[in-house]
Amino acid sequence: MIQTTQIILETRGDCQIVDISSQVRRTVSQASITGDAIVVLFHVGSTGGLTTLEYEPGLVNHDIKAMFDNIAPADGSYEHEKTWDDDNGHAHCRASLLGPSLTIPVIKGQLALGTWQQIVLIDFDTRPRTRTIVCQILT
Amino acid sequence: MIQTTQIILETRGDCQIVDISSQVRRTVSQASITGDAIVVLFHVGSTGGLTTLEYEPGLVNHDIKAMFDNIAPADGSYEHEKTWDDDNGHAHCRASLLGPSLTIPVIKGQLALGTWQQIVLIDFDTRPRTRTIVCQILT
Amino acid sequence: MIQTTQIILETRGDCQIVDISSQVRRTVSQASITGDAIVVLFHVGSTGGLTTLEYEPGLVNHDIKAMFDNIAPADGSYEHEKTWDDDNGHAHCRASLLGPSLTIPVIKGQLALGTWQQIVLIDFDTRPRTRTIVCQILT
After folding, report:
1. Which helix (H) or strand (E) holds C113?
2. How many Å lie between the alpha carbon of B6 and the closest alpha carbon of chain C?
3. In this complex, which of A89, A99, A103 lies closest to B51 when CB atoms are compared?
4. What is the pLDDT of residues C89-124, one digit of tens each?
5. Chain B residues with beta carbon closer than 8 angstroms to that of C99
6. Is the ipTM here above 0.95?
7. Domain CATH for C89
């Protein structure tokens, strides 16, 4: 059985990292899952992505952004920006690399995350957005 | 219920990006999915991978390739190439980072993609290949 | 139906790459899967991740590590390390980029891997760890 819900978030972009673990946990709880299940998460859109990390200020406010600045610099030269007179070429590149989907086991009703492992959306865009994450619970 | 099909593609490599959204959409349609489902995609092989992006010429023909050239340069020094007298060490590294699997929700028979979000195969290899992507629809 | 098992590994970190294909294959075999199925793998923890690659010495002992040294250098400056008096900021960054989850099709009882494509855990941490990979088989 597949139960589909959506998590809606307001974001500000610029490599903002949002911890969505509690929302995902609530979705599992509201679906009355007490046994094993699989949660499929999918970020709708091409300038953000999903992963897990230890949600602490050093990583969230500095280190992850520094890595992505190294991979695809915000001030780099992008054909995407020339074509569309836009400024978010780096956001598209980073999002493609990170990926939009994540699959997380549920064991006896609990997300199988590590103690220091949170589920996050990273928004790479250059302006505030309303973001949608599709959350499917498979039992 | 799991329905398994395969998408077969001829590629030329060198960071070629192929939009497979229409093939995946056709697979969902042919499976007569009208409710919710989950599509699992898997690239068979170690020099290509799957992600989503806005399929437009600037990103597809330049920016994504430039990012991967930065991450694992085509002209870099790779032990893989010395060992196997090969030239695609960068292709293996990039493919491992991008990853072979992608999971996409289907809601009321439609793939839950953003307007500017296409499903793509990126082929990093240095020669033409016949590529197989396994497509499983879970209902 | 979902069958959940765990793969437990002792690792030494420092970008160690462990081939877990045979463990995953054994899990599929022990679940008596003869038809189609989906295997969901999830690495518990924030300093390691999962992907596929050709498991050969050049890539495993040198090239993949060199790529990650380029992406997030081990000797870089990380706020995570200053905050927690730790030395594994690069490990957290790399793991977030690689991602914790992987989804692999099973066709007629066999993992749909390429001939030169193995399932691996990459442990980026800076000390030996006991690692847990949750393995769910969906039929």
Report:
1. none
2. 11
3. A99
4. 999 999 999 999 999 999 999 999 999 999 999 999
5. 99
6. yes
7. 2.60.120.460
Query: What is the edge-to-edge ordering of all strands in the sheet holding C110-111?
Result: C2-11, C129-138, C37-44, C101-107, C110-111
| Closest A-chain CA to B41 | A101
- Mean residue pLDDT across chain C: 97
A117 pLDDT more than 90 = yes
Can you say whether residue A60 is alpha, beta or left, with left for phi > 0 and alpha for psi between -120 and 50 degrees? Answer: alpha
What predicted TM-score, i.e. pTM, was given to this entire model? 0.98
pLDDT (mean) for C33-54: 98
C96/A139 CB distance under 8 A? no
Q: How high is the pLDDT of residue C83? A: 83
Contact (Cβ atoms closer than 8 angstroms) between residue B43 and residue B130: no
Sign of the four-CA dihedral C91, C96, C98, C102: positive
- The chain C residues in contact with chain A (CB within 8 A) are 2, 4, 40, 42, 44-46, 71-72, 76, 78-84, 89, 92-93, 95-97, 99-103, 134, 136, 138
Instruction: Judge whether C2 and A104 are in contact, CB under 8 Å.
Output: no
| B46 → closest Cβ in C38, C53, C107 | C53
Is B18's pLDDT higher than 90? yes
Neighbours of C107 (CB within 10 A): 15
How many CB pairs (< 8 A) connect B and C? 100
User: Which of B15, B50, B54 has the most A C-beta neighbours within 10 Å, making it the best mutation to test the interface with A?
Assistant: B54
Q: Report the pLDDT averaged over residues C55-64.
A: 97
Could you tell me the pLDDT band of residue B85, with boundaries at 50, 70 and 90?
A: confident
The number of beta carbons lying within 10 Å of the beta carbon of residue A113 is 20
Candidates C72, A89, A45, A46; CA nearest to B66 is A89
Radius of gyration of chain C (CA): 16
**Number of structural domains chain B divides into:** 1
Q: Domain span at residue A124?
A: 2-138
CB B98 within 8 A of CB C67: no
